[in-house]
Amino acid sequence: MRFQRLDLNLLVALDALLAERSVSLAADRICLSQSATSGALSRLREYFADDLLVMKGRQMVLTARAESLVEPVRAVLQQIHSTIAVSPPFDPATSDRTITLMTSDYLTEVLLSTAIDRILRDAPNMRFEIMSMNDHIIESLERGEMDLLVTIDYAISPDHPSRVLFEDDYVVVGWEGNPDMQGEMTRDLYFRLGHVTTRFGRTRLPAFEDWFIRRQPQQRRVEIVASNFLTVPGLVIGTNRIATMHRRLAHRMAANLPLVIKPVPLAIPHIRSMAQWHISNNNDPAIRWVVECLASEAAHVPEVLAETNVIDMDRTRVKGALRNELIRQYQHGTARKLPDSQR
Fold this sequence. Notes:
By secondary structure, this protein is α/β, with parallel strands linked by helices. Among the domains are: 2-83, Winged helix-like DNA-binding domain superfamily/Winged helix DNA-binding domain (Arc Repressor Mutant, subunit A); 98-167 and 272-299, D-Maltodextrin-Binding Protein, domain 2. The protein has twelve helices and 17 strands.
């Protein structure tokens, strides 16, 4: 089908080329041969009278015209998907859908590992692909690179539907042989000891606790930066280092490793784990069913949230507004600090 001389089938190829910036990767994404995808690029270049992708060094980059097409093309395809594409009836028992999730190893460990196992009992033919968190999770959601984003509330987009799964807070974790872990974890001791923290991707995107504590007047001495949460315990065992970990993950790790858990001697906001999906998939019965299964499994996760050393951002309108401001700051990477009265 053509619209104003443009073969509309080329829009899918164009979207893949703009996203991947590579003929071979775009071909894999849309299940075409490289020669067919290269041919599609040639026709697109002819139609737009622009190169669209050009070599710069060893990589292909988008021209200015191509950059201007990224969002409009994605929006058109999302609109087609949501208004024209008809989804077949969904039956978990017979569905062979593949659901792609982007999430952290923390949430994979404390929720998805058991939730997916339960899901596959009712939907034995479904498959799940778990993507690691990258530097641009909202952009990945917008581009349709995943069916579900499972992450903390500070990182989700306000423009797409979401569902709260569970809450968590933070604790201090150290080796059981560390003499500093035998008594009270005071604020002075916390800031005196060496720390392990976690940052992600090429831009070293900080985990929430790392981002929050770096905004405080007093700074930790970070000795090791890990690339994921599950490697953190191994980097404190046998040392005098400590780490600030999600409480649920810490208790799970301490059940099998020589770790001691202490309260964090400063107030850190609690976090909510959320499931989010693109608004164009809001009526997708398979995705909604999976979300309900995740929420059901989350409801059975033992409650370990502490009453102390947690900033509850929702008990008052002021604190609720403060939470929204923290979310804005976290997503935009600003460095403003909490008022002293809220620390």
